[in-house]
Amino acid sequence: MAATYFLSMANVHGGAERIGLHTADLLATAFESKCFLNRALKPHTALLTEDSVIWMKIPGSVVKISRNPLAILYYLLASIWLVIKHRPERGAVFYCNDLESVIMAAAAKIICKARIIWHVHDVYKLEKRSTRMVLALVARITNVLVCLTGRNAERMASIFPCRIEVVPNFCRLEPLEGARSRVFQQNGEIVFGCLGQITRWKRIDAAIRLVKALNVEHGVRCRLKIGGSALYDSDRQYQEELHQLSRDTNYVEWIGPVEDAATFFDGIDFLVSFSDNEPFGLVILEALSQGVPVISSDGDGPRQLLTDEVGLILAEGVHSVKHVRHYVTSLEASSYAKKSFACTKQASLYSVELFSNRICHEVGQLFMN
């Protein structure tokens, strides 16, 4: 059996990287694969043995091609270095967790006849000419495309002629057993929550405006808890804008970095996720696993995860305050409890066992072929 390699060039530990590092551990255990990882991920790789990882120091200016298109040249040169330095076996399988990793495997594809699996964690704007050009280049060397949702798979099929498989992410939290400890509308107040990286495309400002409108214009007593932190300078500027937006209010509570997501979810009634076209939404899945209904903007991930029984998708935009008001105020404790139970049942469909089996199957298929 040929060798396998896992590649991830990311420098932040977000949802895609958490799934990616689980995949890296899975492949290292099942196929004794080597992992090429950005050194910035080192604090989060406790599951991986040191001898299974090859650390790479990636300059921050070239970490994401979407931020710097010239980074393509860096990764093409790195792909040549990889072949010269590590001499992958002929027919090796490269499992790439991001676009940059696929380009880094290009030389191995050409010289060593490597097979490439790209696990797509993003939703690319195909109407942009530059994006289509990059993806068309990547499509020429990709053997299998793994997408998180059926909608994204259909979209990518217009560019990628290779086999495309849909493998949804899994929930890392243990599903809640029994009823929630929090009473719905405890103390006569509805508590919304936002959790995750604080960045502009997450549209936390829309959540703040929603809660403000519900309190001031519609007389709904509610509060918003915000958990998470900003990782980039531009995100810190956005966080400062959010602080200015929520200043002089008593209905926005800043939690900061959250170590225990289950405890955070136990303190809210609804998760609010207003991201611009969420690729999957791990935080949505985690909220469902804890029995928390979700109010979300439209996107690939919410369409995959949410049904009428477990959440509300605002297809008309995130400013549908009247829809949200009707949704949250029409629920009584008993109907909320039914929704909560339906949430945990929905989350159970996305198990780590199912994910692991699908990933091992895809790698095994390439070996068989």
Task: Give a description of the structure.
It contains 14 helices and 13 strands. The chain is an alpha/beta fold and 369 residues long. It folds into 2 domains: 4-170 and 351-368, 3-Layer(aba) Sandwich (Rossmann fold), CATH 3.40.50.2000; 186-347, 3-Layer(aba) Sandwich (Rossmann fold). The longest helix has 17 residues, at 15-31. The chain is elongated.
Notable characteristics:
single chain, 369 residues, alpha/beta, Rossmann fold
Helix and strand topology:
Elements: E1 4-8, H1 15-31, E2 34-38, E3 53-56, H2 71-86, E4 93-96, H3 99-104, H4 106-112, E5 115-119, H5 129-139, E6 144-147, H6 150-156, E7 163-166, E8 190-195, H7 204-216, E9 222-227, H8 233-246, E10 252-256, H9 261-266, E11 270-273, H10 282-289, E12 294-297, H11 300-305, E13 311-314, H12 321-329, H13 333-347, H14 352-368
Parallel strand pairs: 1-2, 1-4, 2-3, 4-5, 5-6, 6-7, 8-9, 8-11, 9-10, 11-12, 12-13
Helix pairs in contact: 2-4, 10-13
Q: What is shown here, in short?
A:
This protein has helices at residues 15-31, 71-86, 99-104, 106-112, 129-139, 150-156, 204-216, 233-246, 261-266, 282-289, 300-305, 321-329, 333-347, 352-368; strands at 4-8, 34-38, 53-56, 93-96, 115-119, 144-147, 163-166, 190-195, 222-227, 252-256, 270-273, 294-297, 311-314. With 369 residues, it is an alpha/beta fold.
